[in-house]
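Notes, Module 5: Reading structure tokens.

Key idea: the token line is not a picture. It is a compressed description, and you learn to read it the same way you learned to read a sequence, by spotting repeated patterns. We will look at two proteins. The first is printed below with its tokens.
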Amino acid sequence: MLEQISLTGPIARAAVKRDLNARLPQTDVQLFHRSMMTPEMMEGMRAFVEKRPVDWPRE
């Protein structure tokens, strides 16, 4: 996809960049919220607070 974008003109690239920048922050927030209550995230936070190595949960 990046190769195709690099072949476009500067106005088209600017439009793609504007579109991506408008959408990515929203996507980042959604992914962060989805990961918040997973066992992996909870163990990572606990380990950080308890200042110990992480014992990642097994699936």
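Here is the second protein, with the sequence above and the tokens below, as before.
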Amino acid sequence: MIALLWSFAALAIGPMIAVRLLHGRSIRSLFGRGGTVLRDFVKAAATLIVIYVLGITVTSLLPGEEGTLPGLDLRRWLTFLPLALIGIGIQTLAEELVFRGYLLQQLAARFRSPLIYLLLPSILFALLHYEPGLMGPNAIYVVAATGLFGLVAADLTARTGSIGAAWGLHFANNAAALLFVSSGGALQGLALRISTVAPETEGFVAMIVIDAVMLAIVWGLCRLVLRR
């Protein structure tokens, strides 16, 4: 699992080569405005973490059968945690360089309409998360939720001029899903807890809706926080 995350470094090489050889730009230009990437990363990641913790706390108090089961034991989890966090950082950065870095920038340079340069990378990003074998009939809802995330990330990138905020959201979201409470499947190997709601069941749709609502709240707050 950790090796899979680290292997995304190869994905990051593609846009780096493209901007140098095809467009004569510096690799740094993929990241956007200098000096804001790490600052926006921290602000966006912190915003998502706060809202998600509040959301999980509230939903845990509601009646229902949803819960979690033990995953990786705490000692092993802590042992793998540093490498896993670096791996998630690599994986999310690679995807941001492709979708909110290279693709968004190239489309924005050619088309004035945000419907093109915000939507197209988000649609492609969403379609790559279509997994009917794992998600069953819920696969289309996962694609829709992923597309929403892509739009939020693209909007924040366009507004801030760097991929920092999008990367921060992506990193915090994936860290929560892979390391803390996993929905099961092939990516549950590093999680501390495993959700009892299987990805292909009706109950999973409710979780997707809740996540979408929290993401909308995070987006609104990020737009306020990132102005400062």
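Summary for the second protein:
- Strands lie at 68-70, 181-182, 193-195.
- The chain has ten helices and three strands.
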